[in-house]
Write a structure and sequence with these properties.
The complex is a heterotrimer of chains A (170), B (101) and C (680). Chain A is an all-alpha fold. Chain A has 6 helices and no strands. Chain A has helices spanning 6-27, 31-51, 55-79, 96-117, 130-138, 142-163. Chain B has helices at residues 3-23, 27-51, 58-88. Chain C has helices at 9-16, 25-29, 32-48, 57-80, 108-131, 138-157, 161-179, 186-217, 222-231, 234-254, 263-266, 272-280, 284-293, 295-301, 303-325, 330-350, 354-382, 393-396, 398-412, 418-432, 436-461, 476-491, 503-508, 527-548, 555-558, 566-571, 576-589, 591-629, 633-649, 657-679; strands spanning 86-95, 98-106. Chain C has a two-stranded antiparallel sheet. Classes of the chains: A mainly alpha (170), B mainly alpha (101), C mainly alpha (680). Chains A and C meet through α4 of A and α30 of C.
Chain lengths: 170, 101, 680
């Protein structure tokens, strides 16, 4: 990594913040903190996308994830009455097998990507404009786009069916 | 910027997500950790899309699809959690062991 | 045939050969105002309506009044000029290869619809000002009502199918809002939802049809599709039947044709002006309009779809007519009568009689809105929808009575009233096309129509009053629209008398497509059809008079006409609603879920139990075999060890998902490492 490039400094700062935030997500004893730290991690990924010239995806992350999904989570937290303050029973007793597996996965993934790609640079291509994304959606990716819309519809109906209370009298 | 630095970051987030999935007892927190893993995958896709200089922005498209599917997943997931909570008055997934034997 | 590569009057003249058409000048170029003004008015009512002295009604009336004036101006210009054919467009953007534009078409067909929608809406809106006096939500009502008219105008002005679809769906949405206007009662909001959902199911057909047409032709513009029809394009010809049938399914939903007719009678839950407008000019005519707009496609390439339309229309016209006889709710009588008349229109189009179908649409719009407004006036006076609470109103409400009589005469097809000419032309078209059965059904329905209208008039206006309170004539603001519509209902037929006038024929065939693709216009009366039609009408009135006049006070007397076997079926609406409820809605709600549960607890558990039992038996056989034969201790021990291992290993199946996940990821790591080692 060439530390004389400003972008790399940005990357390091954002990456460290993201890793810190995600570690808090999986370790904190406070459910609210976990959800808010996930916002931080996702905001970091949005910043990375801007760095990579993917402005539209960054915008969608902010709108959909941070704007909608996290709110949904907060609802979930409140409805299922997890203790909102500090709580002891959020984790399992034994954590080391999980830690071993997580570190092993990291070693395998990171090791293989460094071994394979070495220090190949990302080409400096111009940022992808939203209009290009739009064209791509409606030309090359129009079928997956429609399929995904059906997935959302199915999820919508499924969510309603699962979550509604069946009144005995109706 | 090298491609590897994004991949390593993504690997880190993914592993942290796995740790969260394995170690958390509360179902809502498990879903939060799954979101972390999905975010890691998104970074991978966008970085690779950039690296291969795909003219039709394929990497970004897949990131968008993942976001959509993630939204669906959270919706359904939370609905299921809610249902379990209603039936068992608890959202701890280690108490859900009816799948055994 | 000349290859029409470009659109416009020049090409049109080349296709048509002789007829010169004007482009309509400023009047046609500004026709987008017809669509825009109602939408702007609806928005303005939503935003500022509550602060206005009449809660937004004045804006609504002004907007539709403007449309009526504009439509009339266009109508006069095209009738006394060369005939306007104009397509204007504003390009909005580009979506892949498809251009998105807001385009409006001004030709004879759309001008006719502008005129009808404008005039009938104005009457209904003015009437609604009086009817809604003291309503809970007048502002919301007038906003949705204006949107309703605007959506219909959007639909009829559309030059491309996408825009037509947008108007189509907006009509559906605003009808939902209007039908459920009194949503405090659950039946009303359910009726709105029923209308919306039934329409939506049919709309899927329309949507798929539009997509197929757009992709085949490469453009959603209707005139481009018509060009391909004129050229007999092979690619379009291959899929034309599919497209036509799918479009017709959409039309069946909006025009409430069997089996999608169930929503229309329930749509009576809305305020009466809504019913009047919905049944006359907007919404239900949309389907007929769609078929008429795409008529060359049906006629030239998809004759099978026209046959479907003929059959569906014929079924609808008879079954709905029969249902109207047994209703007690006066609005429901009219609703089933609308279904029946729509059946006439659709069957006429199906028989290839383009002009006859549209002519009936035109006349029906006037007399049916008149009848509904009259019914609303009666309901307003007696505060009940049921004819068993009415009677003797002729003395108390003379003006309502006389206008209602004119509307009924037109509906029953009595000579010189408008319905007479249009119904006669349809019956003649059935005979022309040798559709003898449909013709006989049409004549029979003319008889039924006269019968149920006589019944409705007898029960409502004659005899003695059976309701509470003291009914009195509605205020002038409600009566004047009815008088105006009565004038139109009485005289609208004169513009298309076979052999004498052909203004209407000329009007609706003033289109980009050559007139010979749009069916023919009868040049003389078909005396047989005319005679039978009038005879059936008079016979129906005579029978109705005999049975129901003077008015009957008790239920037994009202049920003097009772045919065992048929009547229970009619009173239950042929059990179609029950069929839908029990056949579609309830199974999804209950039995399917129960079935899955049953499958789970019986079949799957059974399989598991059988496997378990078989395994256990096998173990027992092996064990006893070993034991009985006294084989080696070693084998005995090995068996015991296996059993022991099994009894311990089963604890791996903990049922804890996270342990499974740990095994999954751990296994993945092991695999990757193994792969790595093996390649290096």
């Amino acid at each position: 990594m060439d530390l004389s490039i400003a972008q790399n400094w940005f990357f390091i700062i954002i990456a460290l913040a993201m890793v810190m935030a995600s570690l808090i997500v999986v370790t904190t004893r406070n459910v609210m903190h976990a959800a808010l730290m996930l916002v931080g991690a996702l905001a970091g990924s949005a910043a990375l996308f801007v760095l990579l010239g993917a402005e539209f995806v960054a915008g969608v992350i902010v709108l959909v994830y941070i704007g909608a999904i996290i709110v949904l989570f907060l609802f979930g937290v409140m409805i299922t009455r997890v203790e909102i303050g500090r709580s002891q029973s959020l984790d399992h007793e034994r954590k080391w097998p999980a830690a071993v597996i997580a570190i092993g996965t990291f070693a395998v993934l990171a090791g293989s990507s460094v071994a394979f790609f070495g220090d190949e640079e990302i080409e400096g291509v111009a940022a992808v404009r939203t209009s290009d994304i739009g064209t791509a959606i409606f030309e090359r990716f129009v079928v997956p786009f429609e399929v995904v819309s059906f997935v959302l519809l199915a999820a919508l109906i499924g969510g309603i069916v699962l979550a509604r209370r069946d009144d005995p009298e109706s | 910027m090298t491609i590897a630095q994004f991949l390593v970051l993504s690997a880190a987030l993914f592993s942290i997500g796995i740790y969260g999935v394995l170690v958390r007892r509360n179902a809502v927190l498990v879903l939060l950790s799954v979101e972390l893993m999905l975010a890691a995958v998104n970074i991978n896709f966008v970085a690779f899309g950039r690296y291969f200089a795909d003219a039709t922005a394929g990497g970004q498209m897949f990131a968008l699809f993942i976001i959509t599917v993630a939204a669906a997943e959270v919706g359904i997931g939370l609905a299921i959690v809610l249902l379990i909570f209603r039936n068992r008055a608890s959202a701890n997934i280690d108490e859900l062991d009816v799948l055994k034997w | 045939m000349v290859t029409a590569a470009l659109l416009g009057p020049a090409v049109l003249a080349a296709i048509d050969g002789a007829v010169e058409r004007s482009d309509g000048g400023v009047l046609a170029a500004g026709a987008w105002l017809i669509v825009l003004v109602p939408f702007v008015a609806a928005l303005a009512i939503t935003l500022f309506g509550k602060r206005l002295p009449r809660h937004g009604a004045e804006l609504a009336v002004a907007a539709v009044g403007f449309v009526a004036l504009y439509g009339t101006a266009l109508l006069l210009t095209t009738l006394f000029g060369d005939g306007i054919v104009h397509e204007g467009a504003v390009k909005i953007g580009e979506f892949g290869g498809f251009e998105i534009e807001w385009a409006w078409v001004v030709d004879g067909l759309s001008i006719m619809m502008f005129f009808v929608v404008g005039v009938v809406s104005t009457a209904c809106f003015v009437y609604a000002v009086g009817y809604l006096e003291g309503d809970v939500r007048p502002t919301a009502f007038f906003a949705s009502f204006t949107l309703f008219a605007g959506a219909m105008l959007m639909l009829v002005s559309a030059a491309n199918l996408i825009q037509l679809l947008i108007g189509w769906e907006l009509v559906g949405v605003s009808s939902y809002l209007l039908i459920g206007h009194y949503w405090e009662q659950k039946e009303n909001s359910s009726a709105g939802m029923k209308a919306f959902l039934v329409n939506k199911i049919a709309d899927i057909g329309l949507m798929i049809g539009i997509i197929i047409a757009g992709i085949t032709v490469g453009s959603f513009t209707i005139s481009k599709i018509m060009e391909k029809v004129v050229e007999s394009d092979a690619a379009l010809d291959d899929v034309a039947v599919i497209i036509a049938v799918l479009l017709f399914i959409g039309a069946m939903g909006k025009s409430a044709q069997f089996p999608f007719h169930v929503w229309l009678p329930d749509a009576m839950a809305g305020p009466t002006p809504v019913s009047a407008l919905m049944h006359a000019a907007t919404m239900v005519t949309a389907g007929v309009y769609l078929v008429a707009r795409m008529f060359p496609l049906f006629e030239e390439m998809a004759h099978e779809a026209l046959d479907v339309a003929l059959v569906i229309g014929a079924i609808t016209l008879v079954i709905a007519g029969l249902l109207a006889i047994v209703q007690d709710d006066i609005k429901r009588v009219l609703a089933y009568s609308t279904l029946s008349q729509l059946g006439y229109m659709v069957a006429a189009l199906g028989a290839g009689a383009y002009t006859a179908g549209l002519f009936h649409l035109f006349t029906h719009a006037f007399f049916k809105s008149l009848l509904f407004l009259g019914a609303g006036s009666v309901i307003h006076a007696v505060h009940s929808n049921n004819m068993s609470d009415m009677g003797g109103l002729r003395k108390d409400m003379p003006r309502t009575f006389w206008t209602f009589m004119i509307g009924s005469a037109a509906l029953a097809g009595l000579p010189i009233f408008s319905g007479f000419f249009s119904k006669d032309e349809i019956l003649a078209a059935f005979r022309e096309g040798d559709h003898t059965i449909v013709f006989l059904l049409g004549v029979a329905t003319a008889f039924i129509t006269a019968l149920y209208m006589t019944r409705a008039i007898s029960l409502t206006f004659f005899g003695r009053y059976k309701g509470d309170g003291h009914p009195h004539e509605s205020p002038s603001i409600m009566v004047y629209p009815m008088i105006g519509l009565a004038g139109a209902a009485a005289t609208a037929g004169f513009i298309n008398i076979p052999g004498l006038t052909d203004w209407f024929y000329k009007l609706v065939t003033t289109r980009l497509v050559p007139a010979e693709l749009l069916g023919e216009h009868a040049t003389s009366f078909d005396w047989t059809a005319l005679g039978l039609g009038v005879l059936a009408g008079v016979a129906g009135i005579a029978l109705g008079y005999r049975l129901y006049y003077p008015d009957a006070a008790t239920q037994q007397e009202r049920d003097r006409l009772y045919i065992p076997g048929l009547w229970p079926v009619l009173e239950n609406k042929y059990y179609i609603d029950d069929l839908y409820m029990n056949g579609i809605v309830n199974p999804i709600k209950g039995p399917v879920a129960r079935f899955i549960n049953w499958t789970n607890s019986y079949i799957i558990d059974f399989v598991v139990n059988v496997v378990g039992f078989a395994t256990r038996s096998l173990g027992w056989v092996v064990y006893s075999g070993i034991d009985q034969r006294g084989i080696d201790l070693a084998i005995n021990e090995a068996g015991a060890a296996t059993g022991f291992a099994g009894s311990k290993l089963r604890y791996i199946q903990t049922g804890k998902v996270q342990q499974y996940a740990a095994a999954l990821f751990g296994g993945a790591i092991v695999l990757v490492i193994g792969f790595w080692i093996s390649v290096t």
